[in-house]
Amino acid sequence: MKENRVNKVLEKMKNEGLKQILVSAPPAIFYLTGKWFHPGERMVTLLLKTNGEHKLIVNKLFPVEEELGVDLVWYEDTDKPVEILASFLDKSERIGVDKNWPAHFLISLMDMNAASGYVNASPIIDRLRMIKDEEEKELMFISSEKNDRVIERLISELEEGKTEKYYAERVKELYEEEGVFEFSFSPIVAFSPNGADPHHGTDNTALKKGQSIVIDIGGVYKSYCSDMTRTVFFGCEPSEEDREVYEVVKNANLNAISMVKEGVKFSDIDKAARDYIESKGYGKYFTHRTGHSIGIEDHDFGDVSSVNHEEVKEGMIFSIEPGIYIPGRIGVRIEDLVMVTKDGCKVLNSVTKDLLVIEK
């Protein structure tokens, strides 16, 4: 197991008076062991105890050839894994469980009176995962560098008549050339006016001159996600109104980034972007939060929103992605990932945010 990370979890458990927790979310298990499991309906659970008697309970369907540094407890499909798990628990103590552990496992455990109480322990690991260690920072930088190259190549290949779906498929090919074989999320390629839908489902719309293009893509490199959005214009200069929308979004992005440093509240970073957009008369068209945390998952725990008054800490990585979405006309979103430092932040993306017109 990742000893340093596990020790931090155990310390948090002690602070909260918990002597045993169950870790079942695959990203959390990977974070602590370096091993991915995709259990489907089967139970894979890491039991952590402050007395050091940790167990990883695994179905024999999932081979473990590497040394994980934890006792493995195997079961077969004909066994009852919850009963096996219960045999290792201290019934006189509360137990922490993951927020998304399937209810049928939890209810079975509760019916056995396997613990004195049950609490949501996900925040313990979720909050630790918000602050990246040096290994994670390096992987996040590399992942974003690869994403930069992919989006630059995609933009250079834009051609009239090709469809959104064509370019979404092309993203997959470009990622594979970078050694990236998984999306962080389904690529969004939206030609105007489709870009006015922040989560437009890529379709067979063909590219025409005079359209704007929202490209929101991310890949997974060695289990760490990238995520970036750029908006460009194709074939001719944008109208004065569309140019204004673009510049407002870009300045909102820059304003929010300029706020990022240790000790600043997430809500104040959101406010820096939101207040600027509202001051320019487009407030009602900015319909989502300013950003989200990212790491092993594209949307890790934590966000940049008006209701999150938590202070950011050195080592956190999250997106800054303001947008303006005018139905039937245009959508503009500009997104970067930032890593918090004591005195500011490092922007993980280097692709230009200057207004680009692709002349072809």
Question: How does this model look, in words?
Answer:
This is Proline dipeptidase. Pfam families: Creatinase_N, Peptidase_M24. The longest helix has 23 residues. This protein starts with a helix and ends with a strand. The relative contact order is 0.12. The model has no long low-confidence stretch (mean pLDDT 97). Helix content is 32%, strand content 21%. It folds into two domains: 127 residues, 3-Layer(aba) Sandwich (Creatine Amidinohydrolase, Chain A, domain 1); 228 residues, Creatinase/methionine aminopeptidase superfamily (Creatine Amidinohydrolase). α6 packs across α7 and α8 runs antiparallel to α9. The chain is an alpha+beta fold and 360 residues long. β2 and β3 form a beta hairpin. The radius of gyration is 23 Å and the shape is elongated. The chain has a four-stranded mixed beta sheet with strand order 1-2-3-4.
Keywords:
single chain; 360 residues; alpha+beta; Creatine Amidinohydrolase, Chain A, domain 1; Creatine Amidinohydrolase; 2 domains; four-stranded mixed β-sheet; 19 strands; 32% helix; 21% strand; elongated
Summarize the model shown.
The protein has nine helices and 19 strands. With 360 residues, the chain is of the alpha+beta class. The longest helix is centred in the middle third of the chain and has 23 residues, at 134-156.
